[in-house]
Amino acid sequence: EDIVQRYSINGGSQVTVIRPFKGGVYAALVEMQQGEYPAAGELAINRNRQEQIYLLDGSLTVKFGERTFILNAGETMLLTPNTPYHLSGSCRTLVIVEDQANGRTEIVPN
Length: 110
Fold this sequence. Notes:
Layout: E1 4-9, E2 13-18, E3 25-37, E4 42-64, E5 67-72, E6 76-79, E7 85-109
Antiparallel strand pairs: 1-2, 2-3, 3-7, 4-5, 4-6, 4-7
């Protein structure tokens, strides 16, 4: 049975999560309008979780570790566990999340 959850994150971003898969894998449609995640001055770190981001449209700036990437429609990026990241931009993305045991995202100061 599909489980759909909708909620908002920073900057008016809307997230729709669909959990139809087994084994800790789920999909999220994230729509950002001049949004950022996490908030300015913070970084997110995935613990026992990886996320594959597929940019459907718009542009997304990804600070991943010490590097910064700009993704455009049709591009993809893998956010591996234990590397700090920050996302900002105006875009729609499909994110495939694979949680392992106790998968979670921590927010820490930048």
